[in-house]
Each structure stands twice: as C-alpha cells, then as structure tokens.
Amino acid sequence: MTSIDHVILEVTDPAAADSFYTAAFGLGERIRVRAGDEPSAGFRGYAISLVVPQPCDVDSFFGTALAAGATTLKAASKSFWGYGGTLQDPFGTIWKLASAEKKNSGPATRQVNDVVLLLGVDNVKATRQFYADRGLPVAKSFGSKYVEFGTSTIKMALYSRKFAAKDSGVSPEGSGSHRIAVGSDAGGFVDLDGFRWEAVSA
Q: Tens of pLDDT along 37-84?
C-alpha cells in the first residue's frame, strides 16, 4: 500500500508553528514544519482532518488548539454523521476535528484514529486518474463528488474545491502557494492543482 509518511506545512515561523502543533494536537512526525514565505491568500485548497473516537475528544482537541491560538471556523456540534467542527490555526492551515459517535462512552483519550489529508481540486475525476496512474489505489469513489485512496499512515481524499471550502466554512477563493508538501513513497511530483509531493524512502 502506498504510504503518505508525513505532510510538511510551510510557515514563516517554524519554531512557533512546531510549538503550536505539539500543544494543540501532538501528532509527532506526521505533521512537520519548515520555513516558507511564498505568497498565499485565501483558501489554500486543503484541510487536515483528525478522526477521533468520541465527541469529548473533539472538544479536547478544540480546547487545546484554541488555547494555543487557533480560531473557530465551525463550532463543534452534532450532525447526522456524528460530531465535529472546524478551526484554522495561526499559520493558515484548516483542521477538521470529527467523530462518528454522537455520545461519549468514557473520558477523552486524545487518541487520533485517522489523519486525513482532504484536497479540494478543480476536477475530481481527472485528479483521481492522475493519482491512480501514480500507484495510489482508489478505496472509495463517488464520481465527481468524493474519492478516497488506500494510503497508510495518513489517508487522503478528494473533494471539489468549492465543496471543500464550504465544508471548511470558508470562501473557495484563494491564490498563491498551497504552503504544503506531501512526503510519500509514491515519489516526487506536482499534481494537477499544484500540490507538491516529495519522495521518501519506503
């Protein structure tokens, strides 16, 4: 199975960003930072989703992220699919915190079941084929609506850019750098929407 080993977030202050991500989420080497100051305005075309066991875990991560300087885009609440909300960190990355459960069965554990990179793209079908051609197996596909790939360590899914922005609670308009790179054994390349992938050892 193709592995997404980590994602690299490009920020103007790596030391501050590293402190934030450690305090807010504690994801270790899966989320890395490096210096980057390429112009970037508006929606960057992606969000990172943390899928957790219970609503109280969503609330726990929300609490530590907000205390560390994040801002709320969508307050955590119940929906037909579970419980969750969205926030934006001080460096521009959007985080979706979600649980499929609507009720707690115990105290918060701050366990993260899955880290999912959600890409908002211009053409879901074309980007699906682009990644399939590079060895990423398609695990789920709903036409031009949603595609999920069979990747390990960090999962990846595609939405349309417009839907991804709406789901995140922001306007779809944006320009400049995505300010993110994906470290994977799939190799180094740039996809149809300008997302950069960097090769890592298998």
A: 899 999 999 999 999 999 999 999 999 999 999 999 999 999 999 999
Residue entry with tokens 């300008």: 194
Contacts for 141 with CB less than 8 Å, ≥ 6 apart? 128, 147, 148
Structure tokens at 139: 């695990």
DSSP, collapsed to helix, strand or coil, labels residue 150 as coil
Q: Which residues of 17-27 are buried (b: 16+ CB within 10 A; e: fewer)?
A: bbebbeebbeb
pLDDT of 202 reads 56
> What ranges in the chain are assigned the alpha helix state H?
14-24, 55-67, 124-133, 161-168
On the CB side of 167, CA atoms within 13 Å amount to 23
**Backbone torsions φ then ψ of 55, nearest 5 degrees:** -55, -35
Place of tokens 């490096």: 34
> Distance between alpha carbon 159 and the CA centroid of its chain, in Å?
12
Encoding tokens for residue 33? 């930072």
Question: Across the chain, what does the average pLDDT equal?
Answer: 96
Nearest Cα to 58, choosing from 31, 73, 78? 78
Tell me the DSSP string of 108-142. -----SEEEEEEEES-HHHHHHHHHHTT--EEEEE
For 153, the 3-state DSSP assignment is: strand
Question: Could you give the angle at which helices 55-67 and 14-24 cross, rounded to 10 degrees?
Answer: 150
